[in-house]
Amino acid sequence: MMARILRGGLALAVLGLASCGGGDGDPVDAAAPDARHSRVDSYDDCHVGLYFADCGGDGAPVLGCEADDGDCRWFTTGAVPLEVEHVSDCPPDDICCHQGWPFAGADGIGAYALFYALDDAPWDRARAMDLTVTIDPELAAPATPDLMCEGTVVASAGAGPCETVEGVVGYALDTPAIAIVGPSDFYGWYPVVELDEPAPGQLRARVCAHQFTDVRTNQCDANTATCATSGTITLDQWPLPSTAGAVLRLDATFASGARLTGDVAITTVWTGP
Predict the structure, then answer these.
(1) Is 67 left (phi over 0), alpha (psi -120 to 50) or beta?
(2) Could you tell me which residues are beta bridge partners of residue 62?
(3) What's the pLDDT tens digit per position in 12-42?
(4) Which region among 14-28, 82-96, 132-146 has the lowest average model confidence (pLDDT)?
(5) How many helices and strands in the chain, by DSSP H and E?
(6) Quick one: how far is CA 268 from the chain centroid?
(7) Per-residue pLDDT tens for 48-87?
(8) How far is 272 from 117, CA to CA, in rounded Å?
(9) Residue 112 · residue 65 · CB < 8 Å
(10) pTM exceeds 0.85 for this model
């Protein structure tokens, strides 16, 4: 359950629904052709990250959501798996083109979580991949997870995991991710490390502060993404295993001068698409 909550970037205590002026929309026919995007059979045909997927198309990025209240991703080349029910017809540079929402009706409410967590611009394998990655097989798991913040990572963002780490969730994706979470709260933030290997031996990473809230609406409310601009991720092994236990050392610096450092071990692994 923790991993599912983190995937959406929210603590699901309250569901607030507010109309943006459009009526309720009917779910799209997932198999129907649409000039805005193409379709692939499933996520098995894609390179999947936490908030993006590249399914081999040749179009512009499109935003898609798996269900009315489900996970949303940017499909970076315009090809979308059949199980993604709702695909926005808004252009990527004006994704909230329907009276402040990506869909003509109240579809895809999960988009609020994505925009609130980061921002409403497209995500892909390359954006903000500004940290180097090293492998140290001698890196040992700490007795207790440790994360320290120097400076303010996210202003006015509620509770974070600095000095008190409650769990470390790994996401077994093609571009794997690791979320370091703090005490539960109705709103706050946690850092997510995403690891990518675009070519053999060319590891890179991004670290972004993902914000969450317990309220969702069908009205765009994007934050400005807060991602590290430099730093190093050290792993005890690569590729990451599909079980808990891998160790990560984090040293990430943000444009504001804030810095995150610490050693953690993955406690839970989520294996969905």
Answers:
(1) beta
(2) 75
(3) 322 232 333 333 333 333 434 456 788 999 9
(4) 14-28
(5) 2, 17
(6) 17
(7) 999 999 999 899 999 999 987 789 999 999 999 999 999 9
(8) 19
(9) no
(10) yes
Q: Give the separation between CA 267 and CA 145, rounded to whole angstroms.
A: 10
Q: What angle do CA 241, 246, 248 make, to 5 degrees?
A: 130
Tokens of 247: 């160790």
Residue whose pair of structure tokens reads 């090293």 in the numeric block: 134
Residue 263 tokens, joined: 């050693």
The per-residue pLDDT for 183 is: 86
Neighbours of 88 (CB within 10 A): 25
Q: What is the DSSP string of 203-221?
A: -EEEEEEEEEES---SS--
* Two structure tokens written together for 70: 């489900």
Q: Where are the alpha helices (DSSP H) in the chain?
A: 2-8, 111-117
Contact 187, 213 (CB under 8 A): yes
**Cα(84)–Cα(80) distance, integer angstroms:** 7
Q: What pLDDT is attached to residue 255?
A: 96
Q: Please state the φ and ψ torsions of residue 248, each to the nearest 5 degrees.
A: -135, 135
Could you tell me the two tokens for 56?
Answer: 């081999």
Specify the DSSP class assigned to residue 117: H
Q: Evaluate if residue 196 carries a pLDDT over 60.
A: yes
| Local structure of residue 56 (DSSP, 8 states) | S
